[in-house]
Amino acid sequence: MVASLQQAGYEAYIVGGSVRDLLLGERPKDFDVATDATPEEVKAVFPRCRLIGRRFRLAHVRMRGALLEVATFRGQGGQAPGHQDDDGRMLRDNVWGSVEEDAVRRDFTINALFMDPVNGEIRDYVGGFRDLQQRSLRLIGDPEIRYREDPVRLLRAARFAAKLGVTLEPATAAPMAAVAPRLEQIPPARLFEEVCKLFLTGHAGRTVDALQQFGLMRYLFPVLPAGDDVGVAHLHPVVQRATESTDRRIAEGKSVTPAFLIAAVLWEPLLERIAPLEAAGMPAYQAMEEAADALLAEQLQRTAIPRRFSAVTRQIWLNQLRLKRTRGARALTVMSQPRFRAAYDFLLIRALDEPELQELADFWTQAQQERPDLVETAAPTKRRRRRRGGRGRGRKRPEGVNPGTDT
Ligand code: ATP
Ligand code: MG
């Protein structure tokens, strides 16, 4: 791929996270290519590629099943006058540039290495190779300016610290607290995308620790009760249990859904909101429904959780009440409810810190062994399998199917 571009007379390199991961001896999950060929020129070399993106066009090239993202070197456009808002946030970043310019507009030095896969040469304009060897995470340029340009870099710092075990170099760590409130201005859809990247890539536990350490957690989840410091949240033990279980499932190659982690993260504020409603005499199920709706609506303003996930989160919560009923002829029918398994898993992690729930958890463990025919997952029809969503992304759901109505 890179060779084809080079043979056509262009400069082309593998770049970004893929080079970083290769040098760390890990298998990159995707490959990004940077080139001096414009998207049209890339298209001329690979007629079957797709050009995507309006503002900043990229070429998607399929190669032996893998998807390569080919981007033209970007220049300093982001720093030019008129390309930032009053807070210094970058609005535009769409000017072609040279390979050096493309390096310095990237975020961290370890993400700005260029590798020529044909001759194995590494191009390093920012000292990223040394930082990678020293496991040091360093923003390129003036850290405060770079965080202001794009506050999501704060979250990326936490993600890389957790995922790669790198340490933030002091100047990169210093301005974090001052810039963190600017996360409030990031579009909620982008923040939700980041939440998924933070929590579903196999290091959710360490990521939560990093978010807490850097005082970012409450900017992502403002509905959480405040902890000891600004940006730090008080976390219910179920959060750690859920991150452990998610990380374990990813390590085992099982599917994961952000809905489960969201259910755990928001569990404590949910309980806090249920209490006064119940105290006022509202039945438990109704109180939970009302509290859940209000809580999710508030959280959605920060992170745009798509309905296909928030509906599952809600079902996991409401099923906690259904799982309390173990007597009566219809009790076992809860096992055929959608999300029974997720709700059962949630009960299991709650029981780890609330021993009084263990008996209930054991009841449902046994019930599933005795009546596997009743369990939602025991005989998945094609449709059910799809609903559960591979990798938890739920993309395959046919349009118009509303997961909120199948309880
Ligand atoms: P991962 O392995 O998680 O995909 P990554 O480093 O590849 O990590 P991507 O989001 O895929 O992260 O971005 C690819 C590259 O684009 C990064 O390595 C970095 O060079 C650049 N980049 C991404 N986001 C930003 C940003 N907000 N600011 C500057 N550069 C960025
Ligand atoms: Mg990447």
Q: Helix/strand/pairing class, anyone?
A: alpha+beta
CATH topology of one domain: Beta Polymerase, domain 2
Query: What is the total tally of β strands?
Result: 9
**Order of adjacent strands in the largest pleated sheet:** 3-4-5-2-1-6-7
Descriptive account of the structure:
This protein has helices at 2-7, 17-23, 39-45, 99-104, 128-133, 143-149, 152-164, 170-173, 176-179, 188-199, 204-213, 217-220, 237-251, 258-265, 267-279, 284-300, 307-322, 340-353, 358-370, 382-388; strands at residues 12-15, 31-35, 50-52, 58-63, 66-72, 114-115, 122-123, 136-137, 167-168. Helix 16 packs antiparallel against helix 17 and helix 18 (340-353) packs antiparallel against helix 19 (358-370). It has 407 residues and is of the alpha+beta class. The protein has a domain at 1-134: Beta Polymerase, domain 2 (2-Layer Sandwich), CATH 3.30.460.10. Bound molecules: adenosine-5'-triphosphate (ATP) and magnesium ion. Residues 16-17, 30 line the site of magnesium ion.
Gist?
With 407 residues, this protein is an alpha+beta fold. It contains 20 helices and nine strands. The strands form two sheets. The chain has a seven-stranded mixed β-sheet.
